[in-house]
Design a protein that fits this description.
Strand order of the largest sheet: 3-2-1-6-7-8-9-10
Distance between the termini: 67 Å
């Protein structure tokens, strides 16, 4: 079946439903998937265009988002969400949604579903469409009143330039500063902060599909697109800076025999500081923060603006990921060859199944360079690690945290889930040293341990 015929079939089948409009989403990222599910939950019909292989890989990779995945499957079965392969050209796609009446292949007239908005996830469409191609296609469209939403992380000012090149008034930018791994669906349905960039001032009311989300946001702000871009980048850079600053302080805390965890709690009592992103550990990873800092760095270079603080944040974060290994090496005075260690967690943060930018990658590389066998328990990230490392002989993935405790000479903690109940009695039976890169153990738990404990800035 041709691309146009496939769309026609779905359009005709959908006529019996309540809505005659469809939200057109273009992209395969978790942000695109979450947007599709949330809009479907709000009773909108959604057509999502993407590289279908990458789309399915993304859904599979986010299997830890169980609620999101279940709704994705449900709405797919109900055809509330319909998937299409991303066409080589945008022109045919636009025509399919902007012709009120058209001849079907059997010569009969059939009413098409009309697009209520186009939502483009810019990073996903780059391999297929250049900016000039898709902008030109929209500018040739006969329906210039259909809103266009853009999302993604780009160099500062780039999205504002794209908006200016679009010959229509209703163009918007939505950065996903609110999305939380492990709670993607709920964090979008009731966002903590919704930022809306507008090409035309005070035109947010034109985005009827997003009004329920704007109304449920705990905080909302709209401004011109360039300002929202800068705000997005500034928020993420501030969060990264706070993390790196606390990690830098943690090294001084170790030398002073002070617990940085207690210090961060005291700092959080000051309303001028607040308590978020003050936890010392192995640093930050994932996709958003590293990508954001990379784009910010590119923006500074393009504009010949020196940003030494940004460089320090990046350096501290990279170095911090190897710190727990150095503590391990020092504990054993360098005699670490051929040991066996147990590692708890592998994702870049608790609650996630993604390992992008996680400290487990440099840790594994360093351990394997000493021929150290690594027993890894990471319930959410197990499949990701298996795919990433294949048949690595020094890696064994476990199904339970205490499965081979008796074979290990040390324990590393990378991203322990808050739901994980530590069995202090089992740990004390082996009395092996614990190297806590997440500072997951409380002071009372540490005090109960028989073996050594080494954290990040815990005074030891």
């Amino acid at each position: 079946m041709s691309f146009k015929s496939a769309v026609n079939t779905t359009n005709n089948n959908a006529l019996n439903t309540k809505s005659s409009e469809v939200c057109v989403i273009i992209g395969h990222s978790i942000e695109a998937i979450t947007s599709a599910v949330v809009l479907a939950s709000l009773d909108y019909r959604v057509h999502i265009y993407a590289d279908l292989d990458l789309l399915e890989q993304q859904v599979e990779q986010y299997s830890f988002e169980r609620h999101l995945q279940a709704l994705w499957q449900l709405y797919g079965q109900q055809q509330q969400i319909v998937k299409y392969a991303l066409p080589a050209s945008l022109d045919g796609l636009i025509q399919s949604y902007e012709s009120a009446d058209s001849q079907s292949e059997d010569g009969q007239k059939s009413k098409y579903l009309q697009a209520s908005c186009y939502w483009l996830f810019l990073e996903n469409i780059k391999p297929v469409w250049t900016d000039d191609n898709w902008v030109t296609a929209f500018n040739h469209s006969h329906q210039q009143t259909i809103p266009i939403i853009m999302s993604g992380i780009e160099k500062l000012g780039h999205i504002a330039k794209l908006a200016d090149s679009l010959q229509r008034a209703w163009v918007y930018y939505v950065p996903f500063v609110f999305l939380q791994d492990g709670e993607a669906y709920s964090s979008m349905l009731t966002p903590s902060l919704w930022l809306l960039g507008e090409k035309t001032p005070n035109s947010g009311h034109q985005l009827t599909v997003l009004q329920p989300l704007l109304q449920h946001a705990r905080a909302y702000h709209h401004a011109d697109i360039a300002t929202i871009e800068f705000a997005r980048s500034s928020i993420m850079a501030m969060l990264a800076t706070r993390v790196s600053f606390m990690n830098e302080l943690s090294r001084l805390a170790d030398s002073q025999q002070v617990d940085i965890g207690q210090v961060s709690r005291i700092m959080g009592l000051d309303a001028r500081v607040g308590s978020s992103y003050l936890q010392a550990g192995w640093g930050f990873g994932g996709h958003t923060l590293p990508t954001e800092l990379d784009k910010l760095q590119q923006s500074s270079e393009d504009n010949s603006v020196n940003m030494p603080l940004l460089q320090s944040v990046l350096h501290i974060n990279n170095d911090q990921k190897e710190l727990i290994f150095r503590k391990f090496w020092q504990h054993f005075d360098g005699f670490i060859d051929n040991k066996t260690v147990l590692i708890w967690g592998g994702s870049y943060k608790s609650g996630s199944g993604r390992t992008t930018g996680s400290a487990i990658h440099p840790l594994l590389a360093l351990l394997w360079s000493y021929n150290i066998t690594t027993l890894v328990y990471s319930d959410k990230a197990k499949s990701s690690l298996a795919k990433h490392y294949g048949q690595q002989p020094l890696l064994q993935l476990l199904d339970s945290p205490y499965e081979q405790l008796d074979k290990a000479q040390a324990i590393f903690i990378i991203s322990l889930s808050p739901q994980h109940q530590l069995d202090i009695a089992q740990l004390n039976h082996s009395a092996m040293p614990i190297f806590d890169a997440q500072n997951a153990l409380s002071r009372s738990q540490i005090d109960q341990l028989v073996g050594s404990y080494v954290g990040i800035g815990r005074g030891k």
